[in-house]
Write a structure and sequence with these properties.
The chain is α/β, with parallel strands linked by helices. The chain has helices at 46-54, 66-71, 93-102, 111-123, 127-136, 154-165, 170-183, 185-203, 212-222, 226-240, 243-249, 255-265; strands spanning 9-11, 16-18, 35-38, 59-62, 81-84, 144-147. It has a single domain, classed as Protein tyrosine phosphatase superfamily (Protein-Tyrosine Phosphatase, Chain A).
């Protein structure tokens, strides 16, 4: 199904979509209108702003760093509480890859560096996401939207954890993560061209002369790749023994909270 035809995609320009509508292996369906994921919302036009307003949001959990929020602040949304919970640092692996990509004196880095970032979300940084999960599983804060800048990596991680808590199978969770590529394809294709120009200018060469290693680095930043989220699954299983054990013991949520979340969100 194309992103434009997917009823879960509400505002394509913001990568805004409903987590509802997905089905568990035992046939239950995630309720619509309760949890939403997106990128930044600062460029909404009048029509898209009306769509967001109609969601009736109570809470937005902003996963971005303070500098990102300052550069792209949320629009005024009356009666919506915005809670900033930065889950990354300014020197994260994405920044390292981006800097090396345009530095003529640096060795370009690629998908492996980003894959390692996703691995360490489980082994070293999961506590950064625990506050987000506590908020998102609170029915008194729903309808709730969580977002980052592009709505694909940090947001994708939160979505993967929430959908997994609800019992969605791995293929469904992965498909939701990769859907960002289709939703954002026009922007991604333009961004590839823009990054190519930046690389060529930095290196003092023509577009046709850009080394493949730097093109690969650019694409590793822009596109969701299956191996990124797979690294989360693999690291959790290596560190906790099983994915189920990670769900039960690694996310900082009580069994009572998890059971209530499932009862509340599944039809």
């Amino acid at each position: 199904m194309k992103a434009s035809a997917n009823p879960r995609v509400l505002v394509r320009s913001a990568n805004l979509r409903d987590l509802g509508g997905l089905t568990t292996p035992d046939g239950r369906t995630v309720r619509s209108g309760r949890l939403f994921r997106s990128g930044h919302l600062c460029d909404l036009d009048v029509r898209d702003r009306a769509i967001v307003t109609a969601l009736g949001l109570r809470t937005i959990v902003d996963l971005r760093r303070p500098t990102e929020i300052a550069n792209r602040p949320h629009p005024d949304l009356p009666d919506v509480e915005i809670i900033a919970v930065s889950v990354s640092t300014d020197d994260n692996e994405f920044a390292v890859v981006a800097n090396a990509m345009i530095d003529p004196n640096a060795e370009p880095l690629g998908p492996g560096h980003i894959t390692n970032y996703f691995r360490t979300l489980v082994t070293e940084r999961i506590e950064r996401y625990q506050t987000v999960l506590e908020l998102a599983t609170d029915p008194d804060r729903q309808p709730l939207l969580f977002n980052c800048t592009a709505g694909k990596d940090r947001t994708g991680m939160v979505a993967a954890l929430l959908l997994s808590l609800l019992g969605l199978d791995r293929s469904t969770v992965m498909a939701d993560y990769l859907l960002s590529n289709e939703v954002r394809r026009p922007w991604l294709e333009k961004a590839e061209v823009d990054l190519g120009r930046r690389i060529a200018e930095s290196l003092g060469i023509g577009l046709s002369e850009i080394p493949n290693s730097r093109i690969t680095a650019a694409r590793s930043l822009l596109w969701c790749r299956e191996e990124y989220l797979q690294a989360v699954f693999d690291a959790a299983e290596e560190h906790w023994g099983t994915w189920a054990a990670f769900m039960d013991d690694g996310l900082g949520l009580t069994n009572t909270r998890i059971d209530a979340f499932k009862t509340d969100l599944l039809n």
